[in-house]
Design brief:
Elements: H1 12-39, E1 43-45, H2 46-55, E2 58-65, E3 71-77, E4 82-87, E5 92-99
Antiparallel strand pairs: 1-5, 2-3, 3-4, 4-5
């Protein structure tokens, strides 16, 4: 073993600069990641998405047609989890939103139209 005391030399500066660049790059990647995650769209075959929702205890509680002809469905579980999906004419379903604390509210007879 060498008993000499460590004395930093010129090579320490580039190493520290490299660490600073690496740290900066990783912080930048973390700052960009949430925006990338928000842009992610989850889509798939309707039957596959419906099967996955059923496995998580959800069932359809609402279905409607938007102005573009796209079916929108709300799914919910007894535990309060909920998911909104859109379904195109081609059978492709996309996740619109999901969350918790769902409460199914039925329309009263006087609120129904048609």
């Amino acid at each position: 073993m060498d008993d000499r005391e460590f004395t930093p030399g010129w090579w320490v500066i580039p190493a520290l600069a490299l660490e600073a660049v690496a740290l900066g790059a990783s912080l930048l990647a973390c700052a960009v990641e949430p925006a990338k995650a928000q842009a992610t769209v989850v889509c798939g075959v309707y039957e596959d998405m419906a099967a996955a929702l059923r496995r998580h205890g959800e069932a359809p509680v609402f279905r409607g047609l938007d102005a573009r002809g796209i079916v929108v469905e709300a799914w919910a579980s007894a535990a309060g989890d909920w998911t909104w999906i859109s379904v195109g004419a081609d059978g492709r379903a996309c996740l619109v939103a999901a969350g918790e604390a769902a409460e199914v509210i039925a329309l009263q007879p006087e609120e129904r139209q048609g």
